[in-house]
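Below is a filled-in request sheet from our internal design queue. Each sheet records the structural input a requester submitted and the sequence that came back. We keep these sheets so that new team members can see what a complete request looks like end to end.

REQUESTER: design group, bay 2
PRIORITY: normal
MODE: inverse folding
CHAIN LENGTH: 189
BACKBONE (tokenized):
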């Protein structure tokens, strides 16, 4: 390793995130207690798994194949915005190195394996909000399905012990901002 170059093992989260960890611990413990109930754990683990990408890929393909020119445009817009989202949240996670709640607090149970190490921001929530915002901007009737699903994805992250509420809020805000930028570049017609 080059002198003066920090690795993830040498980085510490900003003080603000450490303070948030302490403030959110009790809330995380209460919400995560739901994961001890097998039916609730299965529900949120399933929602989380769909939110890994499967649900969004099906949405993009369905739009592209079944909704004409507007469907193809929104599918391309979703793909481009999602790639930007991956780049942004990946960079933030590597820089901010906030450990997941189940790592930092012994009472919080990890109810499903995480996709990566760090928690801030929630990539699942970022993409749920991003895809939902774009889809309903083009096809408002999709809201009845996508809004509840996006809310379940966001909730799943805390219930399963993978994220703090502030991770989810930050992910939602980033997803909404990226979607708004994409809509500004290519508004629905």
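RETURNED SEQUENCE:
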């Amino acid at each position: 390793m080059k002198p003066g170059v920090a690795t993830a093992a040498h980085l510490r989260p900003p003080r603000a995130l450490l303070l948030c960890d302490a403030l959110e611990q009790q809330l995380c413990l209460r919400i995560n207690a739901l994961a001890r109930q097998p039916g609730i754990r299965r529900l949120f683990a399933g929602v989380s798994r769909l939110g890994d990408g499967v649900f969004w890929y099906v949405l993009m393909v369905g739009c592209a194949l079944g909704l004409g020119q507007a469907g193809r445009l929104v599918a391309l817009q979703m793909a481009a915005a999602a790639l930007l989202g991956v780049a942004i949240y990946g960079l933030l996670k590597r820089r901010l190195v906030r450990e997941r709640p189940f790592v930092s607090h012994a009472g919080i149970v990890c109810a499903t394996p995480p996709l990566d190490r760090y928690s801030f921001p929630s990539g699942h929530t970022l993409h749920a909000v991003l895809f939902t915002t774009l889809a309903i901007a083009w096809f408002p009737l999709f809201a009845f399905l996508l809004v509840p699903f996006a809310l379940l994805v966001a909730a799943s992250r805390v219930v399963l012990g993978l994220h703090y509420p502030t991770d989810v809020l930050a992910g939602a805000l980033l997803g909404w901002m990226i979607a708004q930028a994409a809509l500004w570049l290519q508004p629905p017609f």
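SHEET NOTES:
- The longest helix spans residues 38-66.
- Residues 37-185 form one domain.
FILED BY: M.R.
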